[in-house]
Amino acid sequence: MSRSAPKGLPWPPSRRESSSPRGDPVLRTSKLVKIYRADGVTVEAIRGVDIELAVGEFVAIMGPSGSGKSTLLHVLGGLEPATSGEIWLLGRRVDGLSTAGWAILRRRHVGFVFQFFNLLSNMTVADNVELPALLAGATPRQARKRREELLAELGIADKAGAAPARLSGGEQQRVALARALSNEPSLLLADEPTGNLDSSNTRDVLRLLRRAHSDGQAILMVTHDARVASLADRVINLFDGMVADDARVVPIPRRVNGVGDIVELRG
Ligand code: ADP
Question: Above 80 in pLDDT, residue 5?
Fold first, then answer.
């Protein structure tokens, strides 16, 4: 793996870099639409979504299967083009970016955890996790330190030298989260990051997400678990490709009842 980091990028990325002088939100969409067309069939997966995430805000997305949650994350991460509408990231309009433009933006500012973990199979766990930090401008030493911290927090430090294929689904999911946080992104897009985990591993993941959140990273997370969603600042409910509800979570329970309490409820 190449160890040459791009020159001239400050590391770690400053949260101030993400909060523009005008105080723009990390993410804003306006009338966002995604229509799939294939074999004469048209599916309106996203139908005019307006959402906004402030710097460091933690927002959960819920909604029934097929309501457009994954599509929304994919479009917001530039993995699929929007059909119409606007996406603003860190005060900059990005919906018209090329594939290469999105790749550069993601490298620096966006972490992504997919439902399928998309780890690079020919690299070790350590290299998978260090790569985004290196690409974002960290030195090899900084990237290694970040990787050690993340894997330790997720309880998989002993897997650093392993190939991803040797890991269980839950372990791969945690590696994918460590990789997504490796470049200290301004925005983390996470599609069910606790979907394959037992309660103890869920607790580790939620602790890490809470720390990322308190470090000022904005998180947009799809989840089916109301107890996981209760850690968020806001819960957006999607229904049929539209925002059915966008409600602030009362902050007191999150401060009084920590992650441990919430996960204990899982029995
Ligand atoms: P959710 O994540 O809430 O389960 P999705 O975003 O996966 O929902 O899907 C929303 C709708 O878009 C569904 O009707 C789904 O079948 C459709 N859809 C998703 N991806 C594609 C695709 N690549 N091509 C065609 N239709 C798709």
Answer: no
* Structural domains of the chain, count: 1
Q: Write the pLDDT tens digit of every residue in 109-147.
A: 999 888 777 899 999 999 999 999 999 999 999 999 999
Which residue, judged by its Cα, is nearest atom 25 of ligand 1?
Answer: 36
Residue nearest (by alpha carbon) to ligand 1 atom 26: 36
Nearest to 50 by CA among 33, 74, 69, 26: 33
Q: What is the number of the ligand 1 atom nearest to the C-alpha of 80?
A: 23
DSSP for 204-229, written as a single string:
HHHHHHHHHHHTT-EEEEE-S-HHHH
- Would you say residue 147 lies in a domain? yes
Range of the domain at 211: 55-81+99-264
